[in-house]
Design goal:
222 residues; single chain; alpha/beta
């Protein structure tokens, strides 16, 4: 079960990835996390990645693929994995296809107004980057991260106008990928217009049943 997750900022795919990795007993591989972890290591590759990231530039595709190749050959990936954050364009999709046979691509979707509402209430930990929401996923103590006790803050790009722009950019860049995986017969749409806390268990059960071939599609929970 080699899964690829797509989804706009604020749609909730990261949350579902964390839940599904436990339910399906396969790891969640975030390419962002891979890069950050490698950048912490005092190795030639780690130092190279660190320099690129400090400049705010994108890491070369072949470097990213090497990290991915190393990660998916680890023991915990023998039954599959959830890939999140790569590919971001058709060129990268072509590289990925040569590296591994993805079995399903889940495209998480929500109405723009829902996403804007979610992101406008999103708060992030300054230290560990854990994400909470003022509405649906509040921390136990207001303004404090549950995981590490650090202050929470709202990013500038989570303001409503910034969110609208981010959604426009995401749709423009991701449409070719969605079309590509649809043509490959791998794409499955997952619509989540309700708060994650309201539908999480039902939707996770549906996704699991679909991946195991017990149902033919994943229906929106209304």
């Amino acid at each position: 079960m080699k899964l690829l997750f797509l989804g706009s900022p604020g749609v909730g795919k990261g949350t579902y990835a964390q839940v599904l990795m436990e339910v399906l007993e396969i790891p969640h591989i975030s390419t962002g996390d891979l890069l950050r972890e490698e950048a912490k290591r005092d190795t030639p590759l780690g130092n190279e990645i660190k320099k690129v990231m400090e400049k705010g530039e994108l890491v070369d595709d072949h470097v990213m693929l090497k990290l991915l190749e190393n990660r998916i050959t680890e023991d915990d990936c023998k039954n599959g994995f959830i890939l999140d954050g790569f590919p971001r364009n058709l060129v990268q999709a072509g590289y990925l296809k040569k590296l591994v046979d993805i079995t399903h691509v889940l495209n998480f979707k929500a109405d723009d107004k829902i996403i804007i509402q979610r992101l406008s209430g999103r708060i992030t930990c300054r230290k560990c980057s854990a994400i909470y929401n003022k509405v649906g996923n509040k921390p136990k103590v207001e303004g404090v991260c549950d995981k590490c006790g650090t202050e929470l803050f709202q990013r500038k790009d989570d303001k409503p106008e910034s969110v609208k722009k981010r959604l426009e950019v995401y749709k423009e860049k991701t449409k070719p990928l969605i079309d590509y995986y649809s043509d490959e017969g791998l794409l499955v749409e997952v619509v989540i217009n309700k708060n994650i806390s309201e539908i999480k268990d039902k939707l996770v059960s549906q996704i699991k049943a679909f991946l195991e071939g017990k149902i033919d599609e994943i229906e929106e929970i209304k």
